[in-house]
Amino acid sequence: MKSKKAIYLRVSTQRQDLASQRLRAENYCKSQSYSVEDYLIYEDKISGAKSDRIALNKLIEDCRNDLIDTVIVVSLSRLSRSLRHLLDVANELASMSVKLISINEQIDFSTPIGKMILSVTGSIAELEKNQISDRVKRGLEHAKAQGKRIGRERVICRETVISLHKKSLTNIEISKIVKASPSSVSRIIKAYKLGETSAVS
User: How far is residue 100's CA from residue 93's CA, in Å, rounded to a whole number?
Assistant: First the structure.
């Protein structure tokens, strides 16, 4: 069986779309005179920091079985955002004589210069991942310090809040019972009082 080219596509979450990556990769294949029959497409929707990925694992397995002779990615960051994992994958591909092509970098990673650029580019991708993670962490810590609720707001039973309010419980006491923030309880009671006022007038 003739070896094929492999296009590897990846986004970080299920909500993200692979269409733009797929279009760029397919256009690259056309520029190299590859027909649709010449390549296979492998797609993952998972963080680049994770090394265990279904499509990537299948791609590596197919390379080991001599089904693939070239791996094409839009960017090295799509292959991995971990420098160690990126180098591990690149070295394994090289050991199987599988060529790695990154459309953005446009470098032959089998050469000494290519290997050096691979290492530097991988370091930048890993740095970006760490910076994003750090910004998210600091943002959550700042929100918690300001007393903001993190995550999905708890669904509060309005009738329960109103019933407890009529029993002369304070907003803080009610919030502890229904396990919600005092501000959420206050909004429900305020809306209830406004409704009563409108009914009277």
Answer: 7
The pLDDT of residue 11: 94
The amino acid that residue 149 corresponds to is: R
Report the alpha-carbon distance of residue 169 to residue 175 in Å, rounded.
10
User: Which position among 12, 47, 75, 186 bears the catalytic label?
Assistant: 12
Number of Cβ within 10 Å of residue 84's Cβ equals 11
What local confidence, expressed as pLDDT, does residue 32 receive?
93
pTM of the complete model beyond 0.85: no
SS3 of 44, please?
Answer: strand
Per-residue pLDDT for 100 more than 60? yes
Does residue 12 have an active-site annotation? yes
Read off φ and ψ for residue 48, nearest 5 degrees.
-70, -10
Q: Average pLDDT, stretch 86-90?
A: 84
| The pLDDT of residue 200 | 42
Which domains occur in the chain, in start order?
A: 4-131 (3.40.50.1390), 158-200 (no CATH)
